[in-house]
């Protein structure tokens, strides 16, 4: 690495600004550059936005205004879902916004890596994180105005709203602004039309981004402003785009979030009272770092905040930080100093840079190693969580049978399912608590995995679920003793009428599930033969039977279906199963498709 042949102050790796040493350029835009840097006193890794002071008066002073807006907004926010301002510095030639560094890129990159399709349940959890950041802005009456996937950064699976230069702080929660800033595609129509707008504009942007995550494109065209307005004036969002089927709940939610008229658009308090935003029982949820992060967000508190806000009960009305700036009249912009009242000295001449080159090269290696280790930690945490997927699948199947059929019809089935859940839970609990290195991870990474706060939450969840599973076994075993008729002509199954796990359990488990599948098939046939049932009644009754039939067959053949090469495949090349799609997604399919899938699964029973 050689320093550039110039005597002027430049921004490049090796430059030192105050206590920060520039290590690597990580971004470049029309107004400046972004560098990964390290604080030489604290060892903190940061991101530094560099903007030439000569740019501040560009576009009638709007560049300077955007910088001041971002700094002033970030000074007020302390929330893990908004990028943190570390420091603001100025030299004679440059402005430096020092921000926390995010090690996993931006949300748009993640979305693209998933082929621009994120399933409904995952997208909902991601949006909860974004909404937590939005609430932090709205507490200060701040509109984001440029909310898009690229403006959300990711650090250790936590989403953080960034690029707040377009933010606008209102002096009153009901105030409306008339400055048009933002990105076509996510911009609310009232912003595009340069009409007055308030916080309902951010609701449209959130809805547009939510839609984009799932369907792979914007709900309305972004080819031009006029085409966008024509589209939203004449059409509703397409909720069958690309052949996807989403839940009716989500469809209705998005439709209201994307209303053209801001007065008819979903209110923020209504968003948090919606069923999709409520806390979920993690026992029936497929876990991921994203899911655990979303579970930590208190949506009830957020709902109450917006109810109070909608009723104009805001305690604080911060000063409008932009009211004193008149873009049209401003001839020259002088940004207020945020941290230091004195200019710092730039240290970026070739001689100074050359002295730092070797240090920078070593820092680059160390930082890259740290980033790769962080990614490995998340990768292996995900693999550990996948070991729980079968537990969730069987748990949801048990719950489905119990709710749709009742205890008197499926007590034996529920007992063997509960025992299966307990066996799997106990095995996984033992693996986790004894720190059994089943993935053959090096000690350094394994230590980091067990120190990760979300992995600690995962272990706690597994331990609690093992206790729940044991209680379920006791409950169903005691209930079955009062229903001896369920075991008529099933002499070989009597060993399971207790809380103990018999040596023959695995064989009996499959026999009980297969026997119940045949009973479900008989029941659907009987429903179809009932003359007093109209077609809708038959569909309604058979719908749940087809779904349960599919799930029981999957439970009996889980390893063969999802881990086709046994334990080694399960540990090292597992196939990730989207359990939400297997249950909630299946429930959204037409009955005839469910029947076809049930028949396919039945045929697989004899493979």
TrEMBL record:
Any one of the GO CC terms: cytoplasm
Protein kinase domain location: 20-277
GO molecular function: ATP binding; protein serine/threonine kinase activity
Listed InterPro entries: Atg1-like, Kinase-like_dom_sf, Prot_kinase_dom, Protein_kinase_ATP_BS, Ser/Thr_kinase_AS
GO biological-process terms attached to the record: autophagosome assembly; regulation of autophagy
Binding, ATP: 49
Keyword set, alphabetical order: ATP-binding, Kinase, Nucleotide-binding, Transferase
One family name in Pfam for this protein: Pkinase
Protein name stated in the entry: Protein kinase domain-containing protein
